[in-house]
Amino acid sequence: MVRFARNRNVVVAPNYFLNMAVLLQLREAHKRFGDQIVLEGADVSLVDDVKVGFIGRNGAGKSTLMRVLLGEEELERGEIITHPTLRIGYLRQHDPFQAGESALDFLMRDSGQPEWRCGEVAGEFELKGAYLEGPVKALSGGWQTRVKLAALLLHDPNLLMLDEPTNFLDLRTQILLEHFLRAFNKAALIVSHDREFLKATCSQTLELSRGKLTMYTGKIDAYLEYREERREHDRRVNATVIAKQKQLQRFIEKNRANASTASQAKSKAKQLERLQTTEIERDEPTVHMRAPRVDPKQGTVFRCTELAIGYPDHTVADGITLEIEHGQRAAIVGDNGQGKTTLLRTLVNSLDPVAGQMKWGHGVEIGTYAQHVYTSLDERMTVIEHLEYNSLPGTTRQELLAMAGALLFRDDQIQKKVKVLSGGERARLCMAGLLLSNSNVLVLDEPGNHLDVETVEALAGALELYQGTVVFTSHDRHFMRRVATCVIEVRDGSVKNHFGDYDSYLAAIEKEVDDSEVARGKTPAAKSDKPGKVSGESQRQGQRDQRKAEKERKNVEKKIAKLDDEKRALNADLLTETDPDTAVKLHAQIQALEVELSEAEERWVELSADQEW
């Protein structure tokens, strides 16, 4: 009979339940840093053709787990089992390039492949001409990422491990990466806070929370919905259990001292001992965030005519004539290197215009979130002092602590000095201070880069309710779609309003990428080819089937527990029974229970295997 562990966050099904090879398996992993638990009895298996989106709150330990799987960190306890054919391709965050070498030189040096093969693979990412043959260190971060991805492919990995691959990638490069991953018919583990990217590339979702790993056979949106449904179910069950506990406790206290009802009270006490609430999985308190409270205004908030932006020796774009209305949330879009950040810096007077006129409306208070802002914070202040300094008069300490907590500064962290904060922590602190201000115009450059999925969602919700004006740029399509009410495109030396919403802009860029692939003789990666991509009704049916299976699995778990209790009680009776006939009957009952228990356990394994894989 199959034996298995119960009440585990991840069920590792026996290999004979699977029709695919397990490339890498983590078992009973334990690791901590000081008081922080990173892994506590964590289990996960990665199989040969499944792409897994890996999520978790900031600080949960996702990057640590990646290093463990790569062999760069040691476990305190547990084991990692690898398949003999495992070949990991890891997207390096550091700079692997040598001074003066071209992208082609790097690809040939890194892979040992001939020039023709390196050029062929580089073409998958539109690396050609000066981008392929010029100095690789002169390329933008997005183009350097394309070079690294081409290098990965040249090593023929069967497991890709990507840690925040979309950071600083423009939309076009993200789409190219999605097409590459959809065509890559091997395994991948992808850490990302970008829900849209994970939804487009991954058919399964893995979450790390309080040291435990949960694998879900479905995309991230379905998983987040399932997770909340499960927690809501547990909350309702717990409320019922607590009410019953109170009822039993009142009965016991009322009757245990009375001789005629003492036996009933004792029986109720045993019932009370068996009633247990379910621990609701939640790795952090729910993030609540609010934007600055401002009075709504009407009319034009910003106007420019024949504006030219850039630097004394280089004009990035010219002939710019734009108007932005009060209350709009204007998304600035365009490829990397086209001038989005230059435009934002000009709007907030961090750069002087090269030519032309620009003017903000009367009574405008601009709040800025950008790289050059959060690198210039007062290093002498603590976190809480910075927030107090930047908040509106009358802001309560509770409000300050709530905003600090929403941006992941909790407990003793609010007393940390700015000078000891990491770049990501400074960015979050800048965002917290901005949201506590009285700014009626927010200019945000990549606000989600240092935030996890839940915090990005909270920020999007806050900006949707904001009564002021937002001008922002982001590479997160889910965030852009939620927040943007108009689109301004920076491209080929010009800045223009895009006549359509963000979805229409996205469709236009996808068509350009598809046309480019057709021109190279490659069949575009159709959306229907996305892993797990199905119609809306099919997806809803799949979710209903999954919930039904989960309900059955929980019922089977309860049945197993009940049968175990009955078997234990019968065994105890058998040990003390002196009458042979009664003993024979007890033995027969135990055998019948064992058959029923075995069948229930087999069914549990089947349901668990289906759920996890």
Automatic annotation (TrEMBL):
It comes from the Bacteria. One of its GO terms (molecular function) is ATP binding. Residues 255-274, 517-560 are annotated as: Disordered. Transmembrane segments: none annotated. Residues 257-266 have a biased composition (Low complexity). Residues 24-242, 302-517 form the ABC transporter domain. Keywords: ATP-binding, Nucleotide-binding. The keyword ATP-binding applies. Residues 542-560 have a biased composition (Basic and acidic residues). PANTHER family: ABC TRANSPORTER ATP-BINDING SUBUNIT (PTHR42855), DRUG RESISTANCE ABC TRANSPORTER,ATP-BINDING PROTEIN (PTHR42855:SF2). This is Putative ABC transporter ATP-binding protein YheS. It comes from Novipirellula galeiformis.
